[in-house]
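Incident review: delayed structure delivery

Summary: a single-chain prediction request sat in the queue longer than the usual turnaround. Root cause was a stuck worker, restarted by the on-call engineer. No data loss occurred. The affected request and its eventual output are reproduced below so the record is complete for anyone auditing the incident later.

Affected input:
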Amino acid sequence: MPQPQPLDAVPLVRCGDPEQGAAKSNKELQRRVKREVSKAKQKAYDELYTRLDTREGEKDLYRLARQRDQDGKAVQQVRVIKDRDGRVLTSEESVQRRWKEYFEELMNEENEREKKSRRG
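Output delivered after worker restart:
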């Protein structure tokens, strides 16, 4: 369904003198645009609800729900990562190598608590 364009619904207003009345006409234009946007949204919702009451609309509803459900599952693993210097690694081998380096550093790093407990 095409989205209504709010500026298409409101004719443009020209100001004669930029210093005189520009703020007032701008505020009025903003109000008119808000009203037109509100009307366009209401019309779009009414059309959507009318369509959802049909058989095709029911199919669309399930399709949209399935699509939203799958959108969250699309990213299952990280495919890019940055190395120590901040360069982006994209090849699978280099990404795996970097993760290995990261976890080796993480696991081989001494813990501050362990240092304190050894001292006594």
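Verification: Strands lie at 81-82, 88-89.
Action items: add queue-age alerting; document worker restart procedure.
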